[in-house]
Write a structure and sequence with these properties.
Elements (H helix, E strand, L loop, with lengths): L2 H18 L4 E4 L2 E5 L12 E6 L3 H10 L5 E7 L3 H11 L4 E3 L2 H5 L6 E4 L6 H10 L3 E5 L6 H14 L3 E4 L6 H11 L6 E9 L22 H5 L9 H5 L10 H18 L6 E7 L12 E8 L8 E8 L7 E8 L2 E5 L3 E8 L17 H14 L9 E8 L6 H15 L7 H20 L3 E4 L4 E2 L1
Helix pairs in contact: 5-6, 6-13, 7-10, 10-13
InterPro entries: Gfo/Idh/MocA-like_OxRdtase_N, Gfo/Idh/MocA_oxidrdct_glycsds, GFO_IDH_MocA-like_dom, NAD(P)-bd_dom_sf, TAT_signal
GO molecular function, one term: oxidoreductase activity
Keywords: Oxidoreductase
Length: 460
């Protein structure tokens, strides 16, 4: 399902939701649509005060969503660009504490939790510093830029017992939870292959983000942004379009594959693949970036106690002339589960027990007398109930209009802070998703098959 068709699907669906109510069965064209019912539980017994480090696209989006949860207050923001901090005060008021130095934010005793929405190469350092200061951490995906950083984050969380949530919000979606239940119930039979793609065909989708006219060394702490990477002259393009560079981001795999991997691991319970091979190219966006705009990868998942071995193919194409689109298709022996974002379809195709004859078959090459003998023998061997044609059915499921899985992700995070409830995406889950994405980059640049130990989360 493409981005446009999925949005239309949910928009049209929302018109029926008000009439039918969540959880009921709606007739949508020729398709049966099941509206999923969100869990409305929210316990706001005390105030949680949050700060956000990194007030870019994800920072502003995360803060806006977090404040939809009762009992949450936004009190502080840190960013290396003064314009972002000015925007914070425009939106949330002049009393919000702002700083270029995230450590000032962490030193505040009145902050209970922080959102880490910086470029990828800062995730580990800030997350670890925050946990050491006793803060709960909501860290945007991918959790880390380097595999070893992930192990340090896990070790810090385990030692400090801090609440730590990775921000791949789709794992909190009611649609993903329902898809997991139906997968585990065997509705598509035995899983044999997974196809996933998340294509785009626009400049912003390809990370050509806007650069403000006042992007100067006076307004941007560029040296701090560089961290421990190579020292280069001030460059606002690197600062605002950091995803285009290996030094600061994680390319297509870290930005987008990680969503696809997270969804797969949540539904199947898989720990990760054992072999990864990736290829790709820089096709359209030759703007100085040093990462590809087309990546295709093959993941080999091993046999486990819960599922047989299967393959997963992942693709992101930033030069998609078809206009983009996304899905993850779980293809089994008896059907297909096609996952959107907050919606999915199950297309079942149960084969006839009898093999059939005719059509594209050697039966057509037999003499007439032999064909007659074959049919007589066939009917005696296979009873009528086994000769029924393949049975096909299709059902669609979707969250109601206005549903926000990122809000549910934050609800889970804040509930964990208040009650000790387990987060849905802890640091270990985060590295199990980020690790294969980072290995994809390793395979792409080395042009080699990479073996991955999913249990130990290390390259073999």
């Amino acid at each position: 399902m493409t981005d446009n068709s999925r949005r239309k699907f949910l928009r049209d669906l929302g018109g029926t939701a008000a009439l039918l109510g969540a959880g009921s069965l709606a007739a949508f064209g020729k398709e049966q649509v099941h509206l999923l019912k969100p869990d409305t539980r929210i316990s706001a017994n005390d105030k949680i005060r949050i700060g956000c480090i990194g007030m870019g696209i994800m920072g502003f989006g995360d803060v806006e969503t977090a404040l939809k949860v009762p009992g949450v207050e936004f009190v502080a923001a840190a960013d290396l660009y003064s314009g972002h901090l000015d925007k914070v005060k425009e939106v949330y008021g002049k009393d919000i504490f702002t700083t270029r130095d995230y450590r000032e934010l962490l030193n505040r005793k009145d902050i209970d939790a922080v959102i880490v929405a910086t470029p990828d190469h800062w995730h580990d350092t800030i997350s670890i510093d925050a946990m050491e200061k006793g803060k709960a951490v909501y860290c945007e995906k991918p959790m880390v830029q380097q595999i070893e950083e992930g192990h340090k984050v896990i070790a810090t969380q385990q030692r400090t017992k801090a609440v730590f949530q990775v921000g791949s919000q789709r794992v909190s979606s009611i649609a993903l939870l329902e898809a997991k239940k139906r997968y585990e119930a065997g509705e598509i039979g035995q899983l044999n292959v997974v196809e996933a793609r998340m294509d785009r065909h626009d400049a912003l989708g390809a990370w050509q983000y806007s650069i403000p006219p006042d992007a100067t060394p006076a307004n941007i702490d560029f040296d701090t942004f560089l961290k421990d990477t190579a020292k280069v002259p001030f460059d606002p393009v690197r600062f605002f379009r950091w995803r285009n560079y290996k030094a600061y981001g994680t390319g297509i795999p870290g930005d987008l594959f990680v969503h696809l991997i997270s969804g797969l691991h949540f539904i199947t319970g898989s720990l990760g693949p054992e072999r990864i091979y990736a290829s790709g190219n820089l096709v359209q966006w030759k703007d100085g970036r040093d990462v590809p705009d087309v990546v295709v990868a093959i993941f080999d998942y091993p046999e486990t106690k819960t599922h047989p071995a299967f393959q997963m193919t992942l693709r992101v194409n930033f030069a998609d002339g078809g206009g983009g689109g996304e899905f993850t298709r779980f293809i089994g022996t008896e059907g297909v589960l096609e996952l959107g974002w907050d919606d999915f379809k199950i297309k079942k195709h149960k084969l006839s027990q009898a093999p059939g004859y005719g059509g594209w078959d050697t039966w057509n090459t037999f003499p007439k007398s032999t064909q007659d003998a074959y049919v007589k023998q066939y009917n005696e061997k296979y009873p009528a109930d086994q000769r029924k044609p393949a049975q096909r059915s299709e059902n669609a499921y979707a969250a109601p209009q206005g549903y926000d899985s990122r809000k549910d992700h934050f609800i889970n995070f804040f509930e964990s802070m208040r009650t000790g409830k387990t987060v849905v995406e802890d640091a270990t889950f985060g590295l199990r998703a980020a690790g294969p994405a980072l290995v994809t980059n390793e395979s792409y640049f080395s042009k080699k098959v990479i073996h991955w130990d999913a249990q130990k989360m290390r390259i073999v």
